[in-house]
Design goal:
By secondary structure, this protein is α+β, with helices and mostly antiparallel strands. Helix content is 44%, strand content 15%. The chain contains 9 helices and 12 strands.
Length: 269
Amino acid sequence: MVSDLSLIERVKRQVVMEPEMGCWLRQGALHEDGYGLIWQGGRTRLAHRFMYEAFFGAIPEGCEAHHICKSKNCCNPGHLMVVSHQEHMELTPGTVGYDNRAKTRCKAGHPFDEANTRIESNGARGCLACRRQYDKARPLERNPARSKTQCVRGHPFDEANTYISPKGERRCRICDRAREKARRERVIPQAASMSNNTPSSYLLRRGKMTPEQIATLNARTAFNARERRRRDPEKMRVQQRRKYARQRERNRPAPEHTENPGIEVELVL
């Protein structure tokens, strides 16, 4: 889309045609980096960007115009290519991105081949061999406990007895199983004693309701509880605390009496 023909003609009059590459070398004002400058709409613009937009349309935001011919003061729109900033740095000689792109080995001498190269989130290349060495040595530096061969209870940290948690911590499987067993022995009887005191269990023992009716009642009760929590969650939290307090009071053992002639002492737990 050609626009502002008078300005385009003025830019063309101030260029010199380069016969070998076909570059339009800008002879007017130049930027300190070597790019040609023009005056448009009350502000200074880069000549090569103006010429590209005049012939091919606007350059997307965040993108840059790269000179395929490597001549910064060239205004030929056919020698321009729209790329991202990172791609522009990798294609421009003398930049860090260009120098890094030309490297075939990392600092440790490992080759940047397909099997040993990974692309980081910022687009940079990374050496997999160096990363593996870093990951292997870093945990020992951060946590000296990594060098231990046994847990605190003396169980070996071998392949069969070691579990790596999502946080990267080593866990002893024998100790984990023992803790889980103790938890179940502590929690399950308590839950069973509480369930025997529920109204539905009482009705089932008395034969006043069938198991199917009990299941329907429990489902309806759970649905109503969810609705109450949704409508007034703070009130439901208060009711739950009161309910658990009553259950603990019912499950509290009876006070014990000591056998002492003449003096009777009552122990209240």
